[in-house]
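Before relying on records like the one below, remember that each one covers exactly one chain. Contacts with other chains, cofactors or solvent are not represented anywhere in the record.
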Amino acid sequence: MQSLNDEANPPPIADDEPLATTHRKNLLKLIHGFSGRHHHWQVFSDFVECAAVSISNAVDATHREERETRYMEVIRRYSSEEANEFPKMLAELTLALEAAPLDALGLVLRDSHAVDVGHSEGKLGGCVTIFGSLGVPAQTFSLIFRNARS
């Protein structure tokens, strides 16, 4: 089994749309770049939470301050240099979803081996990704994110 700290050789991602695969691999490399300082499961989890807060705050002012407070609690775990990687991760996720409407988060989670750590630490529970569980088309996420950036 591959070491969780093996950032030079991230595990393979399923072969589908080549451009989407490239962006998911880039996202996985960014997650693996935190190796030695943070567990992949924690980086993945924090990234998903911060991305959700960012998107939500961009399109919905209700509870914005509470979400922003939570965002700051999460991001404080990381150095400034590490925190600067989070927008890059969101960009790679967005580009992957634009290239192919797949459960990109589910594929990244599976291929990061973070799922093994999450289970072994009892943190994963019934973790599912939004696209796999709700059947929400990835194009919807892309459209929302693109509109939020405008």
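The mean pLDDT is 74.
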